[in-house]
Every structure is written in structure tokens, then in C-alpha cells.
Amino acid sequence: MVSRVESVEELVSRAVDAFRQRYGQTPTTAVCGPGRVNLIGEHTDYNEGFVFPMALPMVTVVVGRKTDSGVCRVTTTSPDADDPKEVAFPVPSSTDPLRPGKPAWANYVKGVVANFKGEVCSFDAVLASSVPLGGGLSSSASLEVATYTFLEQLSPQNPPVTLKEKALACQKAEHQFPGMPCGIMDQFISVMGREGHALLLDCRSMAAELVPLDNPDVVVLVTNSNVRHELTGSEYPTRRRQCEEAAKILGKKSLREATTDDLEAHKAQLDPEVLCRARHVIGEIRRTTEAASALQAHDYGKFGRLMVQSHNSLRDDYEVSCAELDTLVSAAMDCEGVYGSRMTGGGFGGALSPCSRPPLYRTPSNTSRRSTQGLPPSTSPPRLQGHECCRFHRAASNPHEPTLTQPYPSQ
Questions:
Q1: What are the pLDDT digits (tens) for 301-332?
Q2: Residue 335 contacts by C-beta under 8 Å, 6 or more apart in sequence?
Q3: Which of 17, 80, 83, 186 is catalytic?
């Protein structure tokens, strides 16, 4: 079925209602951070390669207010989050630092609080999100960036941290508390994404280039396989270690510096599985830069072919796809007007996908909708022009509700 994405205004309203019910007051602050879909460039960020994501209309909203209790209380409205749905912890100090624990969802909040660059005050907060948990659309980074922005609003810094510092603090939070050794892509796009653009990010230099998505006749259709993934298990760290092992054998600092000729020259020294992992990364880095150039040139045919090559490599060499994703990619490619299709996100088999592979369409035709009938996923098509969630800064429609704040300064 085609599902409707809850608007930012609706999320804020729902979170405000929940805050009033739980804490008996009206929140003074409302912020949000977007999820993302990666057009191409999978498992390249922790190999110092290139990634090419775009931010989405799906966002995580945090509403709340400063308190003088010395305790931080946070409630989530997500039915998919583990129990309990509310946590309370003291404002951290050098003698009493925060530590990860249960429930798992709260570790993302705690990690950001622990890595905030300014003074942390006590607060009450409610979370609401339209980013599906475990859907390959980076609900974690969306929550981290929203939490950091919330803390910035409660305790303004002078001068404020840079967008890069903010993204890196959120990445460090995910490393330390959930224990997920992610690359920098998800936090960077959630912080730096702009409406009407994708972001070509060099994960070695951290240089970012906004690439216009300016063809109104082309859309990205994000499809949820409804197979939920958990990236904090062993598969993601294992692949990261395999890439590091390959780079060491090749005599390179990272696989960003390696070529297919290097791989062939050291083939006998590499474990067959490690060889496959390295082959994917080296090829994916090249595909990503070529895809960005193709999109800038409006060469959607080439862009689509690179998407398909990316999926095949993720399926065969990196082994992070699953039957549901492969079925959906095949179904999309059978539709008239489809340029390309691939899984997106960390993957890991039944672990899901990206809302899972964004097919690139000329038009979201009835044929494409019919082709997925009888399959498990639900779909929601954001326009290629960009993410509506970037229109964050607005006057509150109700004078008794907080004004929503964007995760980056207005330009």
C-alpha cells in the first residue's frame, strides 16, 4: 500500500499533546532532524570514500522545556521503541557521567547529552518521529541531531558549534552509547541537508557539495520492505573489520586509496570473503562519484544503471541484501519508466532496507504500484526536488505552542 507521511506540523502537534498529558505543562521548545535516503554510496563512509544521500520529509521531533529539577526526563511516543517508553537520568557531571543501558532507544539521547559541547541543563522532553525504526532511513541520526538541536536551544552557545562539529558529536554519541561504529554520512546529511539538493560528501576530507535535484519530472520512491534491521549486532562491525583487514594487506590507510589493480595484485593474500568486501567498496566509491556527475548532467539512464550495479554488488559481494529487497528491486525494474533501483541503508539481510531501495522514476506510475501488490512493503514517494522538512523555521500556528527550530542556521 502507499502510506502517508505525517507532516512536521502534525508531529509537533502530537508531541505537544503528549507533553501536556505527561508533564502537565506546555513545551517551550520544538526542534526536528530529518532522516535520509542514500542515493548511492553504501558502506563507503567508514572507508573514507564518497556518499550521496538526500534528506527526507520524515523527521524526528523533540519538544520540551528547561527545568530546575536536576533530572532529565524523556518520553518517546514511538510504538516500535523498546520499553519502558520513559527514562529519567541526572544531569551528567565529571563525577557522575552518563552510561548506556536500557531501554535501547534512550542511549541515542544519552549519548548526545554526554557529548554536547555546551552546558547541559535538566529538561523534560517528548519524542515523536515519522522515520521508521530499523528502516534504513537513519532514524538514529535523525534522533541524535534533533536532540543536539534541542540542547542548543535550551542552552545557547556563543559562539555556536559548526555544523561539522555538531555532526561529529552526534556520530561520537552513536559510537559510545548504542555501540554502533557508524561512519559520518547519516549525521552529516541530517545536519547539512537542504531542500532541493542531494549531498555529495567526501568522507575523508569531510568536504560536502550540494547537488541540485531540479527536475520536477523525476522522483525518488522510497519503499519499506518491512523487514526491520538492527545495526548494533555483529554483521556491521564484522564488515568494517574486513575492510580494515583488506586495506592493511593492500598497504593502504583505507580502501579509498585502493584500486582494482591493487586488489588483483594481492588477490592470493586475501581471504575470499575479505576480497569480496573490498571489491564492493572500491567499486562503490567509483560508482558514487560517477553517479553524482551523471545526475548533475541529467543523465538519468547512466544514474539508474549505476544504482543497479550498486545493488548487485551489495547483494553479491557485500552480502547485505535479503530476499525481500531483491524481490522489490526486480519488481521496480520491471516497471515502465524506471531508471534504476537499489537497496539503501546498512542492509544486512532480513535486516532491512531502506524503506529500502529508492527506485528512480520518471513518474510514479500506476504500473509501479500494481507491481508491488501482494508484497510486504509499503511505499511513500517524496519528490526528488528535496525534502519538505527543510522548511523548518516557521511561526507557531498556535501562540501557545513552541516555534519549530531547524537543525542548521537559516541561509
A1: 999 999 999 999 999 999 999 888 898 888 88
A2: 359, 361, 365, 367, 368, 371
A3: 186
